[in-house]
Amino acid sequence: MQLTVTERLLLLNILPPQGNVLMLRIIQELKTTLSFTEAEHREIGFWSPCVDCGKEERTHSIDGHPFVPAPGRVNWSQEADVPREISIGPKAFSLIAETLEKLNKSNQLQLEHLVLYDKFCLEDKVSERLLVEEDGHRG
After folding, report:
1. Taking the domains of the chain in order of start, what are their residue ranges?
2. Pick the residue with more confidence: 23 or 57?
3. 137 pLDDT more than 60
4. Which of 9, 26, 32, 42 has the most crowded CB, counting CB atoms within 10 A?
5. In the 3-class helix/strand/coil scheme, how is the chain assigned residue by residue?
């Protein structure tokens, strides 16, 4: 499945933190799959802004305060935010779809989740995914 940097980060943030042992193993594998390799880190150019001035560490000038990364905030080169093929198995696909449906039903789905909802929950995508599952292919 084609996923951008943004989509991968969003998925990593909505995965359930708890469940039964089978679900947790799927989540653990999915986190590894969605994570970024060292080569991707270099290519994408992740960076954290300074909590005080918002500047990147490598461009942070000494203007009276040390560089302190903003917790939970990360930026990257938007040119590198291109879709990449990420292999997601049928059980992981279903887990993601169920998670997004739960967010939707509890009115906790956010605007940035819409692209994920479209990819994982819309009827044509689910039907397409079921066909892939029947053929035994992963994508």
Report:
1. 1-35+87-139, 38-82
2. 23
3. no
4. 26
5. CEECHHHHHHHHHHCCCCCCHHHHHHHHHHHHHHCCCHHHHHHHCCECEECCCCCEHHHCCCCCCCCCECCCCCECCHHHCCCEECCCCHHHHHHHHHHHHHHHHCCCCCHHHHHHHHHHHCHHHHHHHHHHHHHCCCC
